[in-house]
Amino acid sequence: MYDQIAARFSRRTVLSSLAGSLAGLTLGTGLSRWAGANSEVQNAASVVGEPHFPPRAKRVIFLFMHGGVSQVDTFDYKPELSKLDGKTLPFQAAANIDAKPVLMQSPWKFSQYGESGAWCSELFPHIAQQIDRLCIIKSMHSRGQSHGQAVSMLHTGSDNLVRPSVGAWVSYGLGCENENLPAFVSIGPSAGHGGPRNYGAAFLPAIHQATTIGRQGRLGNGQIDFLSQATPEQLELVRAIQTISQKHLDRVGPDAQLQGAIETYDLSYRMQAAAQVVLDLSHETEATKVAYGIGEKATDEFGRQCLLARRLVESGIRYVELSTGNVWDQHGGLRAGHAKNAMAVDQPIAALLNDLDQRGLLDETLVVWAGEFGRTPIVQGNDGRDHNPQGFTVWLAGGGVRSGFAYGETDEVGYFAAKDRVHMHDLHATMLHLLGIDHERLTYKYAGRDFRLTDVHGRVVKEILV
Amino acid sequence: MVAASQLSWKSRESAWLSLVVAMALTLGIVPAQAEQTPAEFFEARIRPVLIKECYSCHSSQAPVLKGALNLEHRAGWQTGGDSGPAIVPGNPEDSLLLSAMKFDGLEMPPAGRLSNETIADFESWIKAGAFDPRSEPATTAKNAPLSGMSIEAGRQFWSFQPLIQASPPALQNPVWAAVANDESSTLSRSIDQWVLARLEASQLTPSAPADVRTLVRRIYIDLTGLAPSAQEVEEFCKDQRPDRIERLVDELLDRPEYAEHWARRWLDIARYADSNGSDFNATFREAWRYRNYVIEAYRNDLPYDEFIKEQLAGDLLPSTSEDERIRKLVATGFLMLGPKMLSERDKLKLQMDVVDEQLDTMGKAFLGMTMGCARCHDHKFDPVPTADYYAMAGILKNTLSLQGEIQKYVSDWPEVPLPIPAEHRIALEQFEQAKKSLQSQLASIKKQLNSSTGSTNEGSDRQLELGIVVDDTAAEFVGEWKQSTHSKPYVGAGYRHDDNAAKGEKSATFMTTLPADDEYEVRVSFTPAAARAQAVPISVTHAAGVTMVKVNQQKSAQFGGLFESIGRFRFKADIPAVVKFETDGTKGHVIVDAVQWIPVRDIEAHQAMLAKVASQSQANTERDKLQNEMKAMEGKMAELLKTAPPPAPKAMAAQNTPSFADCAICIRGEPHQLGKVVPRGFLQVASWEPAQPIPADVSGRKELANWVAHPQNPLTARVYVNRIWKSLLGSGIVRTTDNFGVLGERPTHPELLDALASSFIQQGWSTKKLIRAIVLSKTYQQSSTYRPDAAAIDPENKLLWRANRQRLSAESTRDSLIALTTGLETPDRDSPVKSLGKLVAENNPKGGAKAIQESRTRTIYQPVVRGEISPLLAVFDFADPDFVVGDRSVSTVPAQALVMLNSPFVKEAAQQIARQVVEDVSIPSDGRASAIYLRLLGRPAQEEEIQLANKLAGPGDLAGWSRVAHALIASTEFRWRD
């Protein structure tokens, strides 16, 4: 369908619009519903465009487990915690929490999987089968005892100030591989805990902000705002707008802004056609859908998100974020809550890893699985765990990371990151590194100084790289 | 939180450390200094560690000197980096280097904590005086720590110099030479002279005046934000008086639309919003008063110096009337409107973050200075030392910006009660009294009702004989629900309510398995009363799917005052029957007591039986009477609530803390690492006289306001006139409107900037006079058409050889389209977010923002909900309310084209325009194209354009002409003003 519509444009039109005078537009990242490229040359020109060194991954899928997954119930196996179940925490707990200083063992059984023999709890039976693809970091720590700060820290590297999102930095640094689509897409982003700040461009040109599909952990109708069908009638309207505007331009110009505006009508028209195809899951086979758990009540939502993510990265989008919505926050009802949430994501994520691999995309796609923090090994109420940015687990898979590998440790009960600690800034530095970007050199001048994703921090965790 | 984890780590570390030291002392191992000379000790234990662990970042080998700290020589650690001296000889506890090595605050080296032995070595070394033989090596330029200008050097920088008044040079150009004798105002003349002087110096000539239709559209849009109607353009064209432009400008400056338009520009700078945004998007119910204040300030042309003082310290200024007092209180909303990380659990940090936000906003808005940098270290470029930052932070810390908690860990902000007219106060008191009396009457009837049946629930117990009843004790609750036995009757031992809080976050699910596939009536019990919610959403999961119903919990329940039916549904025996109570969107308490499933076939028989019982029961007659009384009383209560006077007015406004203090420097911005206390004061570099100490018994905010608004402050007037200039001419004389510091651009016309600033102050800081003078200048009125000859010399038009074309702002586009079609509605000017709850959107998967009905009033009256800016506005670069925006970006992106092509708003506007033209019988059918041009662009169509339009209009029906109007609205000529 896309081909047919594209064919309606003369080759000349397409080429001339691609060679448009606005550098920002040729990056093709303009679908953002909020705003777009600052047409000032300064901003467009400061885009790196080319990586600093050969990248190991070309794009990122970030699976955001909003609310905070408990590390001691998933990947960070602590036999000591079982032994000490019901005992007092042998050291001081973090400040400002509601959990009692009493340890609670995991209600789930752990086993070793794969050749790597990595531990995984029975919450993730499907992911466990893929464990040799994962690079598990068990020594994460971050800032922010509350969701707002920690979610912001995870997304922007700042817990209190408005800063560009990781995806926006990547869009700014690398642009998009597909000129008809935006570089950064966020599916089902939360409106709370900072909302758009977490996928925003802050002071970067607005074009780098995520284009959103759905909200609050839901794909919704799976559409982008203001996108309609590309029809011949609309093409007639587009041509009329362009003719009228061209006459204006001829009278008063040349003027790069007017010229740019005229060209955006071509571009947006082509974008409609391209995006409609990418967003349409009906192009997938029944077998694929079943593999992702689409059609099954528990897994349908996240299955669709994962499948859409694959379609998006396949079409050249740089950074795709998926969100479960704020569902992992089990201060109480841990047994039921974590079981339900894990079930919703387990099969879809495993299918995504498999599918990427089968299509030869996993090698150049970095998959990141993370919550904003972990949960305490000490108990809140009698079936809950409190927030824990002091120590938690994230895992990476795909382009450039050591597979079947675990890095770092928490203390004996899984509370504080203890050995080979990895700060959130370090994770960000490492993600950029894998994309071929030096986190100290990807900067943007704003309000009188150069800003970085990692501020003045960040260490590339070389130990986890291939 | 790092700070939190530090606590526990620290306690463990230090315990460990003291153990090591104790062991070492008993065994006599470590005190190596006893045998070694200080030099030997340094060489053996210290230098190797520095080289191995520190030099890669903290020496001349480092690509960038981290934290400006050089550990390669003695002077390096003596001076220290951003955080001050790294080592205090003899005092390990105050030595930052050591605490960083202990991972106490800073964590150095970042790769991992060094061994305890090494740390103990450093501790001993520092204790013994930190002998260091390394003298200073020659500093290379690369590693010279970046440091800002000294204050003395800073005073020489152009923007910190006093305003200079120079006379414009003599002019050669015959075109404008006449300006010297022009009858226009002195300032307009002076503008033209300065601009012309620069043009002449570059062998440039100014452009011809814009043609009259272009000019009138430009003036309307710039002054009111609205494109002129066809009529307004025609009237102006007909007017042949020589002073018609002056008359138009004066008329427009008097219109309310002028104030609305220019107030919105200030709201960009004040990062105005109707919600907090950030992590906890709380509703700012009272922010609208500040918005109205700004509109009134522009309408009345409040002198800008007063405008500043009122916004920074209005609560501390004298007033001569109650209205003035209210206005000045409301003005201080400026300080309160920032986004705050309300759920930050480290409240000390939160307080300093709020102060920082206020200081940064104030600095950018009034002074064009980025002060945030100086929070952690002396400003790297501008002459703003950290001490100046904390001198001003100290002042703002004496303002009560946070108070209490909305919920656990989530801070609240105080609201200030506003003076209230006696009439209103009395009405409120009377209302409260009437309410109280009704409430007590109701309570007494209820009491009688309960006692009249002898036992609490007896009368209603009969209702429980039917079907299956699930009590609240068996329900599954999400969120915090309170137990109660306050209102009777209820099922079981009590009921629960949502405490009328955290709406949308709470739910209650009742589940049961029914004995047979059958049709059941579902009933719910909820102890009705006046303060209950009226529309509680309940979802019923039955055989055919899920049905949503709403229940009014104020209304007495129909079955024995206990149960209310919510409908009949078919259920299957093998599928759980689920009834879920939600709280989303409810107002008042939501009550959850019990759910009953009754096979429909059983109902009639039971009712007949009940009727029989009732007729036999005297007690029940008595009950009925009381119940009728109660109903009547509830009716009265409902009536009373309807006539409630408006609540006592409050404002988001500043107030002083109970006591005042200076503020200590937070090392590297860490509020838990305090340096020396600095006396409160202002930016030294922008001060024209030695600072007067701020007395201990005042907060300092009024003094700060007076300093900012002082005519001798070198920044204030310059920054403001430059903003106005930028709005009208398209770019500022200083192009970086929010940055007048070293990294900002230099003025293209420094003398003109000063002439504007001086005249502005002399003219009583009048915004209207300033705008008038600029708009009446020949500079402003030039054509914006491109000229290759001039562009070759000055491609960016820095010297103003033509007017700059400007894109209509998001609001101008929207508001103009409404004004030209249905007309703008008169706003009620009230809070646009009063229908929202405490949070605009809940932090849960279901919590969408409540839809706010968009009215067709001007955009400035629409709510600005942080994180929920309407895509229609955001895509056209509406100011992000998280930042001070003095210079909105002007983007050109496909998303705008998509809005223009597909948004219902644009399509509707196009249809309206077409309808106006098609339905106007005075317009002949061949005049329609031109009529549409006139309405949208303020000019008739040319022949070629008419042909194109006719072709696009096809059969010439409404749809056809709508297409024409649509194409024009989406065209560059409508979206820009020439």
Write up what this structure looks like.
The complex is a heterodimer of chains A (466) and B (978). Chain A is α/β, with parallel strands linked by helices and 466 residues long. Chain A has one domain: 3-Layer(aba) Sandwich (Alkaline Phosphatase, subunit A). In chain A, the strands form 5 sheets. In chain A, strands 1, 4, 5, 6, 7, 8, 11, 12 and 15 form a 9-stranded mixed β-sheet that branches. In chain A, strands 2-3 form a two-stranded antiparallel ribbon. A two-stranded antiparallel sheet of chain A has the order 9-10. Chain A is globular and about 80 Å long. Chain A starts with a helix and ends in a 15-residue tail after the last strand. Chain B starts with a helix and ends with a strand. The radius of gyration of chain B is 36 Å and the shape is globular. Chain B is an alpha+beta fold. Chain B contains 35 helices and 20 strands. In chain B, 49% of the residues are buried. Among the domains of chain B are: 142 residues, no CATH class; 138 residues, no CATH class; 164 residues, Jelly Rolls; 79 residues, no CATH class. Helix content of chain B is 42%, strand content 9%. At the A-B interface, helix 7, helix 9 and helix 10 of A face helix 1, helix 17, helix 30, helix 33 and helix 34 of B.
Structural class designation of chain B: alpha+beta
CATH topology of chain A: Alkaline Phosphatase, subunit A
Amount of beta strand of chain A = 15-25%
Architecture per CATH nomenclature, i.e. the level-2 architecture of chain A: 3-Layer(aba) Sandwich
Determine the N-to-C terminus distance of chain A: 41 Å
Largest sheet of chain B: 5 strands, antiparallel
Low-confidence stretches of chain A: 1-48
Q: Which oligomeric state applies?
A: heterodimer
Biggest sheet: strand arrangement of chain B: 5-8-13-10-11
Poorly predicted parts of chain B: 1-34, 138-146, 454-459, 843-850
* CATH class descriptor name of the domain at 453-616 in chain B: Mainly Beta
| Estimated radius of gyration of chain A | 23 Å
Top-tier CATH class of chain A: Alpha Beta
